[in-house]
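Workshop exercise sheet. Pairs work together: one partner reads the sequence aloud, the other fills in the structure field after running the prediction. Swap roles for the next sheet.
Pair: D.N. / O.F.
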Amino acid sequence: NIYRYWTDFVMDEVESRVGDINSDLYVYTTIDTKLQKHVAAILSDKISEYQGAIVAIERDGAIQAMVGGDDYQISQFNRVLAPRQPGSAFKPVVYLVALENGMTPESYVNDSPFSIGDYNPKNYDERYYGGITLATAFAKSVNSVPLKLTKEYGIDTVLNMAARLGVGANLKREYSTVLGASEMSLIDLTTIYSVIWNDGESVHPYAITKIKDGVGNILYLRDPSETMTVLQPQTVEYMKQLLYEVVTKGTGKRAYTEGVFGGKTGTSNDNRDAWFIGATSDYVIGIWVGNDDSSPMDSKITGGTLPATIFHDIVIK
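Structure field:
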């Protein structure tokens, strides 16, 4: 039960590498069995009436743990791969554009009501802070600032940044995408953050290192292709500062413990999805909580509550 979401995922990967399976194979994967058991136990302990999913990825993209739900016997649906609205967890894409264009964490921005056409979203608590730094706007996850940044630098620039990070497919060319209205999977969302903590080098998540047939012939051997530089060092350093302030001063404080480098919360409309993506020296860990039918959760469930707490408990072990 602990491994079945993982083995289903791996079997699909095997078929994509070697085609139909009609004989015994030895498949060598990236899983860390100790971490897998630990993550599965915490998810089972923390989730009650909702569902959840967790994926842990090393900086180079090796998937170390994957739990697609609370109980495989009840539901075989892997929620790590399910497209959902990321909410504010998408905002780093916009802030990366701003940082790349010369802004710094200390640059001042104006948090005030924003509207374009009929689109006039409000901040989560309908509170506005006026003149604040970019770091404060990010830590408090205000909505007006990334929308204003998108208007300044262009929505195509934001979508191009998402494409560079490896998650540009299926994003709508709409301002609502900036606030996470375009769906993406947990593994894709976690990839965004993996690029940041991989010092700006491209990341392609993978589960298999080698496949051999029953007599030892190698059918597939992963070739670690050369990475591409997606983000420049200064941009990465500034973004890491922003992500650290989220867990020390902002919406992700419940995730913080010794060894946490930073993270970001996300909550979609009507609390239908709650996310936390964070990093340690070993892993980038993505967490999603919600209902399979996309019905709203309790209004108290946000990315900064249950998902952040799950992340904290994973890290402290």
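Discussion prompt: The CA atoms of residues 261 and 280 lie 5 Å apart. What would you look at next?
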